[in-house]
Specification:
Helix content of chain A: 25-40%
Bound molecules: FE2/S2 (inorganic) cluster
Largest sheet of chain B: 7 strands, mixed
Shape of chain A: globular
Organism (chain A): Bradyrhizobium sp. LLZ17
Strand order of the largest sheet of chain A: 1-2-3-4-5-6-7-8
GO cellular component, one term (chain A): cytoplasm
Number of strands of chain A: 8
Number of helices of chain B: 1
Structural class of chain B: mainly beta
Protein name (chain A): Amidohydrolase family protein
GO biological process, one term (chain A): secondary metabolic process
Shape of chain B: elongated
Distance between the termini of chain A: 49 Å
Strand content of chain B: over 45%
Largest interface: A-B, 21 and 20 residues
Oligomer: heterodimer
Radius of gyration of chain A: 20 Å
Order of helices and strands of chain A: EHHEHEHEHEHHEHHEHEHH
Low-confidence stretches of chain A: 1-15
Largest sheet of chain A: 8 strands, parallel
Strand content of chain A: 5-15%
Mean pLDDT of chain B: 93
Pfam family, one (chain A): Amidohydro_2
Low-confidence stretches of chain B: none
Structural class of chain A: alpha/beta
């Protein structure tokens, strides 16, 4: 089929016309397979060529192509110079940052070195992707800030990577994924939380990852659509684990950001945890307060996917429970479930809450003035 | 309703589409198996350039396990969130009561009638002996 694409997508509207925003979930991609090689020791370059990468993944070797759209991305986001969506800084500036008046963009690279069975390779790839984020993105556009990608299954190696990057203003958070070998509250991950707390960096938990477990607690689903909703189930078990293993109690200054798994389920998870905690408290005496208190004090939420109930009052009720100071706007660019900044928030929100939602909360959390 | 000449027929062969702006509105014109359709190039959901999506078919099911795939190449799928619309009518398939895309009638006119008017030629020099795709809006 012969498809003509227009030269450019939407004409950029004048920047000043739009409210300044933070975009707390942007996915930069590599333009070529070997783009990370300059940041990798020869030993690992050779290793990749000879053995490749093995994830903890049941049933399949990697993410199935193309997940609703090629590279799970917007079809209008291919850079004009070629390469996959999200791989060109200049096109990202033109399509996302400039027209939407993005003041702060938080980069969350996926399919990097996380969840790899060879932990040394995992650490090397994560370190490489962190160098690459500075070189290719944050040093070239001051609006962009990077997440420290860490080899999550090796807590000590991950903590070392965090300590090495701590204090570097290019980085504003530590990045984990929701699908891990074990639930995120367990001890193997504690060194990560300790290092992040020491560094004063929030820990983002992005949906997805390679843990080898099915996305649903009842097995492997048939459809991609089940995987999409499974992300919220997965985040719920991650959050329950963080509370019940006592992570928030042990690391009281730790801040977690739940990324890309919705937030409409937060109140009911909080209610349910509180109720069972009242009855079963003695099993987990290290959890000293009602679980929802930790959640409301130490957890932030990105908006994409923004809940979209029929009655906007329902949305406002949920946000009231979470707190207007806890939501961080995100587009998820260039992925196909991208949220358009001007279209996600229904009318009826006060100016102060709008400002917090689009920019203020993110600036405060990530320490950007 | 104004009629706009948007190009000679041979510049829009079957399976192709053309993007243009008419009276400040983004429009796409499709040639689907020799028939022409005009559609507003803006998704009613969050405003993506709708017509840059792929043309697919319509998957329907009367019973689990029974799948019918019809209207091949006649359903436009939004490049952002994948909402589906019928190119012929602009009808939405995920929420037909609330959403539709404006559809504009398009067809072919011989050069002789186009030259006489009342047509607006979109910066296209028109020759009498050719056929042209015309959109009404
Ligand atoms: S903008 Fe088209 S489906 Fe969302």
């Amino acid at each position: 089929m012969n498809i003509q694409f227009r030269e450019s997508t939407e004409a950029a509207s004048p920047v000043t016309a739009k409210t300044a925003i933070a975009d707390c979930d942007i996915h930069p991609a590599r333009a070529t397979r070997t783009e990370l090689y300059p940041y990798l020791a020869k030993r690992w370059q050779h290793h990749l060529e000879i053995y490749g990468v093995h994830a903890y993944q049941g049933m399949m070797e990697g993410p199935p192509y193309p997940k609703a759209q090629p590279n799970a991305s917007r079809r209008d986001a291919y850079p004009p110079e070629g390469g996959p969506q999200g791989s060109s800084l200049s096109f990202m500036q033109k399509q996302l940052l400039d027209p939407n008046n993005v003041q702060l963009g938080v980069l969350n690279p996926l399919n990097t070195g996380q969840g790899i069975r060879n932990h040394e390779l995992s650490a090397a790839l994560c370190s490489a992707i962190n160098d690459w984020q500075i070189d290719k993105w944050t040093s070239k556009d001051k609006r962009l800030k990077a997440s420290i990608v860490v080899g999550n299954e090796d807590g000590m190696a991950a903590a070392a990577e965090i300590r090495e990057r701590a204090g570097d203003k290019n980085f504003v958070q530590v990045l984990l994924l929701s699908r891990n070998v074990e639930p995120l509250g367990q001890r193997r991950y504690w060194p990560i939380y300790q290092a992040a707390e020491e560094a004063g960096l929030p820990v983002g938990v992005h949906a997805f990852g390679f843990g080898g477990n099915p996305i649903t607690p009842s097995g492997w689903p048939s459809y991609y659509i089940e995987e999409m909703v499974g992300h919220s189930q997965c985040q719920q078990s991650a959050l329950a684990s963080l509370v019940l293993e006592g992570v928030f109690e042990r690391f009281p200054k730790l801040k977690m950001v739940m990324i890309e798994a919705g937030f409409g389920w937060a109140p009911s998870l909080g209610w349910r945890l509180d109720k069972v905690w009242q009855r079963l408290r003695s099993e987990v005496p290290h959890v000293k307060r009602p679980p929802s208190e930790y959640i409301r004090e130490q957890v932030w939420w990105t908006t994409q996917p923004m809940e979209d109930p029929e009655r906007r009052e329902d949305l406002f009720d949920v946000i009231k429970w979470i707190g207007w100071d806890r939501l961080l706007f995100a587009t998820d660019y260039p992925h196909w479930d991208y949220d358009e900044p001007s279209r996600v928030l229904p009318p009826g929100v006060s100016e102060a809450n709008r400002e917090a939602f689009y920019l203020g909360n993110a600036k405060k959390l990530y320490g950007i003035c | 309703m104004a009629r706009h000449v948007i190009g000679p027929v041979d510049e829009l062969p079957p399976g192709t589409r053309k993007f243009l702006e008419i009276d400040g509105r983004p429009i796409a014109v499709f040639n689907i198996k020799g028939e022409y359709f005009g559609l507003m190039n803006r998704c009613p959901h969050q405003g993506a350039a709708l017509c840059e999506g792929p043309l697919i078919g319509l998957a329907q099911s009367s019973d689990p396990g029974e799948i019918e795939y019809t209207k091949l190449g006649e359903i436009i799928r939004c490049p952002w969130h994948g909402w589906e619309f019928d190119v012929r009518t602009g009808q939405s398939y995920c929420d037909p009561r609330r959403f539709r895309v404006k559809a504009y009638p398009a067809h072919v006119e011989p050069g002789a009638s186009v030259v006489k008017g009342p047509y607006v030629a979109e910066t296209i020099p028109v020759k009498v002996e050719r056929d042209y795709v015309v959109v009404e809006l």
